[in-house]
Amino acid sequence: MGNSVKKGKVVIANEKQVKSLCTYKAEIRSYKIDEKEESEWGKNKAKSSLKTEIQQYINSSDVVIFSKSSCDNCSKVKDLLDEWNIPYFAVELDQISNGQSLTKELSKYTMGTELPNVFVKESCIGGYTDVLQLSKDGLFQKLLEGKHDKPKEDAYDYDLIVIGGGSGGLAASKEAAQYGKRVLVLDYVKPSPLGTTWGLGGTCVNVGCIPKKLMHQAALLRQFLKDSSKYGWQIEDNVQHNWDIMTESIQNYIGSLNWNYRVALMQNKVKYENGYGEFVEPHKIKSTNSKGKVKYFTAEKFLIATGERPRYLGIPGDKEYCITSDDLFSLPYCPGKTLVVGASYVALECAGFLAGLGLDVTVMVRSILLRGFDQQIAEKIGEHMEEHGVKFIKHFVPTKIEQIEAGTPGKLNITSQSTDGSEIMEEYNTVILAIGRDACTRTIGLDIPGVKINEKTGKIPVNDEEQTNVPYIYAIGDVLEGMLELTPVAIQAGRLLARRLYGNSRIKCDYINVPTTVFTPLEYGTCGLSEENAILKYGEENIEVYHSYFWPLEWTVPGRDNNKCYAKVICNIKDSERVVGFHVLAPNAGEITQGFAAAIKCGLTKEQLDSTIGIHPVCAEIFTTLSVTKRSGGSIMQAGC
Ligand code: FAD
Ligand code: NAP
Question: pLDDT, tens digit, for every residue of 507-540?
Fold first, then answer.
C-alpha cells in the first residue's frame, strides 16, 4: 500500500451520511467534487433503485465492505484492513433504514454469499477468508493497484453501444444504464421488399409474438362465437369478420408499445438513435438514418442484437409478389385465398389463424411439420388443423410465382414441384413465405473488429457469457448460433449480460429447459425434450412416457373435438423418474406450460406430479393424474371430462 493512500474508514450508518461518503471519496482520491456534482449525487441516490444504490456504494471507494455491526467476520475484515493501513468504506447494513432490502439485492450480485461482502476496485472478492487468502497470495495488493490498467472511462463516447433495439437489445441497454453506464441503442428497420416498415421494439412487438397472438385470439373468437349458441347466446347466423378493423386495432396497440419503448429508454437515460449501425473501426460505429444522414459513435463495448429477417425462396416472382410475416400483420387488405409456404412455427401459426378467420388456406410442406419438435404432437397439430379446414400439400416446394391480376388482393399463379419431380399449378390471392429467417449480421461490418460468424448461416458463435471471439463484443438473441429464437430468451440473456458486465454478477443465461408454445389453433406447450430426443439421450428402455387425451369441460357442452387435447410427460427412469419432457396440446397451453416449466427447473419428478393435488375442473389437472404409460399400450381415450 503506497504512502499516497491515507488510512481511514467511513461507516455508512444512515442515509444522511452518503454526503460525507462523497466528500471522503473526494479527499482520499485527491480530486475535488464540486457542489453541483455532490448534490446531484445525493439527489440521484434518493431517487435510485436499490441496485443503483449498491452500485454507488461499490463505486465509492477502492475497498468497500458490506457489513453488519454485530458480525464477527465483518469486524475481523475491518481489523485486518486497519492493520494493513488500507482505507475502506463499511456499509453497516443493520444500521441503515433500507438495510434489509439492500442485503437482499446485494445477494443477487454476490450469488448469496454471507456477509461481509468485500469489493476491491468494484469487483466482489468475497468474505473474510477470501481477503486472508488473497493477501497471502499477494493478490489483494495487486487488485488494489490494478485499477489504473482499466481504460479511461471517457476515452469513448459510450460505455456500451447496442446495435438492434429489439427484445434483447432494449432489455440489455436499460439494464446497463441502471448501473450508471452511458448506453446508446441503434435501431433501424430496413423496409421489406414490399415496403413494410415499423417502429422501435424489434420483431416480437411489431411483426412477431404480439400481432401473431392477437390474430390468433381473433381466430379463437370465431370458435367461441360458434360455441356460444349452445350456451344460450342468440347471435346472428351470418357473423362477418372485418380484416381492416382487426389490423387497425392491433396496429394501434403496437403503436402504443413503440411509444412506451421510447419513453422507457428516455427514463432510463439510454440514448436512442434511429439509424442503421455498422462497424467502421474496431471501436467505432457509423449510424445512417432513413434520410441518409450519417453519425459516428465510439464505445468501449458493443452488443450485437440485430435479430433476423424472413428468408425468400430465390425463385422467379418471390420478392415481387409474395409476402412474409413482416408484411402480414399490417396488410391493408384481407389476403383471401392464401398459400403458406413452410411448416414450422411461423407457417403453422399464420395458417392457423387465417383459417380461423374463415379464409381458404393451404400449407405447402417441404418435408415434415415442426422440425425439432416432438413429432407425435406435430402430427396431431397437423390432423387438427386439417379437420378445421386447413389444406396441406406435402413434399412440394414452389418454383415460380406469376401475377395473373394486380389488386388488393390480386391473383397469383403458383407453380410447384414435388420431391419426385411432378409439377402442380394453382391460383391463390396471397402467398406467405415462412421458410425460416436469416440473421442480420452480414452487412454490419463485423469483419472490421474481426467478429467471426458462421459463414453458412450468418449466426454468431459465442461462449457461455454471450461473448464473441472479440472480447469486447457480445451478441444475444436471434443472431446467436445454436440458441433458441424466443423473446424471453433474448431478454433474459440481455439482462444477465448487463449485470455481469456492470453489476459484478456471475449469473449466466440458462438455455436449458426453456418452455415455449406454438400458437396453432390447438396450442402446443412444451418444455424439455421431445420423445425422439429423450430416446436418443437416455435410450428407449430408460424413459417412461405417461400420456392421456383429455376433454376440456368448456368443450363438452358445444360438443367440440373430444380426444384431441393431449398430455404427455417423459421421465428418466434412472433418475427417480425426473421429468425430462413436458408436452401439452390444449387451449391456453402456454399458460399451462409456464408453471410446469418452473417445476421442471426445480427438478420435478413423476412422484411429485402425482402427489400434487389438481385444480378442478381445469385442463392442467390431467398432469396430476397421468397413469397410463405408452409402453403399457393402455387406452387413453376419454369419455368425458
Ligand atoms: P429482434 O427483436 O428481431 O430485434 C432486432 C432489431 O435490430 C430489429 O428492430 C432490427 O430492425 C434491428 N436491426 C437489425 N440490424 C440493425 C442495424 N444494423 N442497425 C440498427 N438496427 C438494426 N418468440 C416468442 O417467444 N414467442 C412468440 O410467440 C413468438 N412469435 C413469433 C412470431 C413470428 C411471426 C416471428 C417472426 C417471431 C416470433 N418469435 C416469438 C421470435 C421472437 O420475435 C424473437 O426471438 C425475438 O424478437 C428476438 O429478439 P432479438 O432482440 O434477438 O431481435
Ligand atoms: P424455421 O423454424 O427455421 O422453419 C423453417 C420452415 O420452412 C421449415 O418447415 C422448413 O422445412 C421450411 N423451409 C425452409 N426452406 C424451405 C424452402 N426452400 N422451401 C420450402 N420450405 C422451406 O423458421 P420459422 O418458422 O420462420 O421460425 C423461426 C424462429 O422463430 C423459430 O426457430 C422460433 O424460435 C421463432 N418463433 C417462435 C414462435 C413462438 O414462440 N410461438 C413463433 C414463431 C417463430 P424443413 O423442415 O424441410 O427444413
Answer: 999 999 999 999 999 999 999 999 999 999 999 9
CB of 212 within 6 A of ligand 1: the answer is: yes
342 lines ligand 2 (CB under 6 A): yes
Percentage above 90 pLDDT, the chain = 74
Task: State if residue 168 touches ligand 2 by the CB under 6 angstroms criterion.
Answer: no
Ligand 2: nearest atom to the Cα of 484: 34
Q: Which residue has the cell 388443423?
A: 385
**How far is Cα 14 from Cα 21, in angstroms, rounded to an integer?**
11
User: What Cα–Cα distance (Å) separates residue 596 from each residue in 286, 484, 526?
Assistant: 45, 19, 9
User: Does residue 202 have its Cβ closer than 6 Å to ligand 1?
Assistant: yes
* pLDDT at 9 (0 to 100): 44
**What CATH superfamily classification does 155-310+438-502 receive?**
FAD/NAD(P)-binding domain (3.50.50.60)
Asked if the model's pLDDT at residue 368 lies above 90, the reply is yes
Residue of 366, 401, 433, 517 best suited for mutating to test ligand 2, as the one with most atoms within 8 Å of CB:
366
CATH 3.40.30.10 intervals, the chain: 2-148
> Tell me: the pLDDT tens digits for 555-599?
999 999 999 999 999 999 999 999 999 999 999 999 999 999 999
3-state secondary structure string, 56-109? HHHHCCCEEEEECCCCHHHHHHHHHHHHCCCCEEEEEHHHCCCHHHHHHHHHHH
Task: Report whether 546 contacts 527 (CB < 8 A).
Answer: no
Query: Which CATH number fits the domain 523-624, given the four candidates 3.40.47.10, 3.50.50.60, 3.40.50.300, 3.30.390.30?
Result: 3.30.390.30
Contact of 279 with 446, CB cutoff 8 Å: yes
**Cell 429464437 found at:** 485
Q: What are the CA-CA distances from residue 88 to residues 73, 132, 505 (Å)?
A: 16, 16, 22
Determine the CATH number of domain 318-435.
3.50.50.60
Catalytic residue among 384, 388, 395, 616: 616
Cell numbers representing residue 243 in the block: 380484416
Domain with CATH 3.30.390.30 in the chain: 523-624
201 CA distance to ligand 1 centroid (A)? 8
Q: Residue 616 catalytic?
A: yes
